[in-house]
Amino acid sequence: GIPDAYVGAHKYDDPETGLENVGCVYICYMDAKRNGVRDCVRLAAARHANVLDDPYPSLRTNDYFGASLASLGRDGDGHLELLVGASGVDDGGARAGAAFLLTVDTDGSVLKHRKYSAATEPRLALRGGDHFGSSFAAVHAGASILLYGGDDAARNGGRTGAGAVFSVRLDAET
Predict the structure, then answer these.
(1) Helix (H, G, I), strand (E, B), or coil: what is residue 124?
(2) pLDDT digits (tens, 9 = 90+) for 77-121
(3) What's this model's pTM, rounded to 2 decimal places?
(4) pLDDT class for 132, splitting at 50, 70, 90?
(5) What pLDDT score does 157 carry?
């Protein structure tokens, strides 16, 4: 079926790996009368390591996968595209953050992914402390535009916690 809800649990401790605050995402399906949840699929590093960490390092303690979520709608084959933030990923410096664009089948299984981080997308110019993946908003204007928040004081005149908004175009070429 078609997922009814997506829930990020960025402080999820994975008992299978022993990782703390690694995070996960629940894809939930409601019952026919929409009175309650019929089923949930959990996406976490231990269950989908072949998807989330190939060929990059696997998710680690304090990566906070699921810190934010944004549905980008359906791809050309009708599969859900879900953007998942992992604000604690250390690619590019401590807490630079990352995002994973997941293509999800109707049963909740991940078909493919793309990782956006300092290691995979230098044009993002991510640095330690950016917390990329902590917040997203998707805009659809012929292409997917991602707006994301950051809180690096160095980019805000030294004001701690001042925050900033950045944008990037997500398409087949990026």
Answers:
(1) helix
(2) 888 888 899 999 998 899 999 988 888 888 888 888 888 888 888
(3) 0.81
(4) confident
(5) 57
pLDDT attached to residue 1: 58
Sequence-ordered alpha helix ranges (H) in the chain: 49-52
Q: How far apart are CA 52 and CA 56, in angstroms?
A: 8
Cβ-defined contacts of 48-57 (< 8 Å, 24+): 48/110, 51/102, 51/110, 51/112, 51/113, 52/100, 52/110, 52/113, 56/91, 56/115, 56/117, 56/119, 56/120
Is 41 in a helix, a strand, or coil? strand
Order of strands across the sheet with 65-74? 65-74, 80-86, 98-104, 110-117
- 93, 127 contact by CB (below 8 A): yes
DSSP letter string over 132-161? Answer: BTS-EEEEESSSEEEEEEE--GGGTTT-TT
Closest CA to 42 of 71, 18, 13: 13
Q: For residue 30, what are the contacts with CB-CB under 8 A and spacing of at least 6?
A: 4, 5, 36, 37, 38
Question: Mean pLDDT over residues 9-29, rounded?
Answer: 89
What type of residue is 134?
A: S
Name residue, tokens 């409601």. Answer: 30
